[in-house]
Design brief:
The chain is α/β, with parallel strands linked by helices. It is 43% helix and 13% strand. It has 13 helices and nine strands. Helix 2 links the parallel strand 1 and strand 2. Helix 2 packs across helix 13 and helix 6 packs across helix 7. The longest helix has 23 residues. The protein starts with 12 loop residues before the first helix and ends in an 8-residue tail after the last helix. It binds norvaline. Norvaline binds next to helix 7.
Length: 319
Amino acid sequence: MPRHFLRDDDLTPAEQAEVLDLAATLKAAPFESKPLAGPRTVAIVFDKPTLRTQASFVAGIAELGGFPMVVDGNLAQIGTRESVADVARVLGRQASMIVWRTFDQGRIDEMAAYAGVPVVNALTDQFHPCQTLADLLTIREHKGGSEGGLAGLTMTFLGDAASNMSHSYLLAGATAGMHVRVSGPDDYRPDTAILERAQEIAATTGGSADYVAGPQEAAAGADVLITDTWVSMGKEQEAADRAAEVFGPWQLNDHLVGLGADPIVLHCLPAYRGKEITAEVIDGPRSVVWDEAENRRHAQKAILTWLLAADAGDTGGAR
Ligand code: NVA
């Protein structure tokens, strides 16, 4: 059975560190490693809008010597025109790996069950593990210890704590041995099972994972401050409920940044200046968002390379 990357805790702490080391190596010499030479095809399927994800996967797969086959989910109509399982079996015969951005996590779980090749989550309603890998690489570069270690750093996410980004920070940060705090309005708490899973991982890595109600308390002493849109893709009809009247206290502004411990600021983008983050902060000296956006490519090249190696020796699927 191939390995997949469907959620952040699909990698053990040692595996996550290995992938991040590989990402740093690939970043240092972007055109030297060609594990997809052939070229092997990687299918990249989008059921939701994209900019960074499409650009970074297409560029990254090309750098690895492969062919990025972009599939428009609106044309494919996966799950309505034909079942997820049938699409998985078809794509698995054309491509060496499948990258999918979709809605419910159950859809990508089903894709992985039937594809016969590694499947990578390029964002679901529940998780965005490629983004968090890129973020951990960025944090290592700016805040990592002498060997780039992340353990012991405090990472705070402010905003929709029930979102895919919040969930991924909980799992990925706990895996890295970080102290993760997610903070947002009471109606936007993280999924209990995911929070508990993060706490279980943190107990093995020396980290911690908590929902912290108050934004000031959450930001205090943080090494890394992060936010994301208050209205995730697929939640547009809830935009009126997700307004500044509700989320305003969690806006990442100079006041909250001032409470951190010489913090860096991350945002996965797209950003809405004046809503979840002020222009002063995202365009200011603590912001590392452009490094973060670039690091999508390096981190994703690393997970694709790692999954391909883990899959080597398996039979079936197109290779
Ligand atoms: N939480 C956001 C992340 C965008 C990269 C969304 O799902 O729309």
